[in-house]
Specification:
Layout (H helix, E strand, L loop, with lengths): L1 H13 L4 E8 L14 H10 L1 E8 L4 E9 L3 H12 L14 E9 L2 H9 L3 E4 L4 H14 L12
Parallel strand pairs: 3-4, 4-5
Antiparallel strand pairs: 1-2, 2-3
Amino acid sequence: MAEMRLVTEWLQANYSHAAYQVRARLGSLPMNLGTGDADTPEARLVHNAFARWADALVFLPDRTLVVEAKLVAHPSAIAQLMLYQRLIPASPYLNLRPDLPVRPILLFAVEDVLVSQMAREQGIGLEQYHPAWVDEYLATKLARQRSAPAVQELAPTS
């Protein structure tokens, strides 16, 4: 949810003039997944678990941006963007403009220098957007991760 908030605010601040789509499904399911009845609740669950979703697509006059957002830049976003870039031409329901280039963008609030270096090496654009709410959110999240669950002491049994 926090990453989608980051994407939405960044889009509004930078691309309010352009057409864009958030949480855009790309490609189809991996081979042999979801080959059963697509109308059953189980099939829909499998489909949603394995479908690939870009955080955003931005349709500019000269290119399409595919955006993956992380509050803290993470190397997994590089692999996701590389996959998304390959899937876009195979996603005909998006009605994309096949003659225009696709530019992958890693959007983050907190930079990891090594991740940024790796992204540049792969031709991935970097966008840092750090709204005020991110620091409080990360502090709360990290505090929850650091605190161990309460352990109840058991009375000795005889």
